[in-house]
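Annex B. Sample input.
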Amino acid sequence: MRLPLFIANRYLLAKKSHNLINIITWISILGISVGSFALIVVLSAFNGLEKVISSMNNRLTPDLQISPVKGKTIDLTTFPLGQLEEIQGVEYVIPTITEDALFRANDKQHIGQVKGVGLEYQNIDRLKEIISGDGTLVLSDEDEHAFAVPGAGVAWYLGINAYNPYAMVRIYVPKRGNASLMSLENSFNSEVLTVRSVFSTEQEQDEKLVLVPFDWLSELLEYESKASNVELFVTQNADINKLKKSVVAIVGEDFTVKNQQEQQETLYRIMRSEKWAVYVILTFILILATFNVVGSLSMLMIDKRKDTEILKSMGADKHLIQRIFMNEGLLISVAGGIIGLLLGIILVLLQQQFGFVKFGTGGGNYVVDAYPVLLKLKDVLLIFATILVVGCTSAFLTVRHALRKEGKL
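Annex B, continued. Sample output.
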């Protein structure tokens, strides 16, 4: 096996009898380098965007969410809240209520969702990062006055200024029981809450969600010891998969337990679909680049026809000759792939470290200043494996066809 590789390496590095073959060989290496460079950079860019979007969404999304399989509510009188709180690694167990609602303020109105949460929300560190101003999440004060915390989008639609001490929002929720379609007052329960803070995270949540105290919303909806979901927030280094199994064992088959990715399954599916669609497109471009390898290899086989005859007279069989030129095609592909990957990795690492590719020069209000990228080892291995498969396939088909045509097979 060493002899075919040795001869192929000599063919790659040595000067050919026709300078055109050298030019086509280097064009082949350049084409594959560009393809592999584009693959690693683009996939790393998608990884970076996914990380930024996930970090924004996950600040408000619980680590684990428990929902009923049937029905809309959870009966808290029989639900094992105490057992969940005893699980090592679980920091907060918080029942929540989510309901469609109509919001009105400053002669403006907006349809969204109101979410009743426990006062423990005020103590969760990562939620403080999404609160405007001093980062204080205010759901209730010492006098047990309830406050609303709208998303930035909801606040904008309603013209609410959180820094205005008199800012208020009226919340309408559907009335249970005998509701009248002819009267707004008889169809909805409504109350007014003061707004002390506004949160800002992902756009979809910002434009529809308003946080309120759990007990306040429970009374407004006329719920009695019921919740829509139970949310679990875990410690920083906790094993989510292990905790999920423990929670499932406690709550049983009547409830579904979802981690953050499962709660936002559609978003993650879209991001991954886009990433792999781009991977397929760039791989197709990489395949087109291997046509240069086909041309280079075909011309090299013609140029080295005398060498193959000499090798044959020395006892080389057809399989040895085939392996020589297959190794030659593979070396061209691997050389181009390694060059492109190294350049791409260097560029991605520089962008991660220094962020020299900015989103804009006008000083816009962006979540991050520089374009986010994230290098993953599995992407590097995937691209290199793709180059090997494409290179081996193109070389095998080219050599097999050329030798068969010459009657060598």
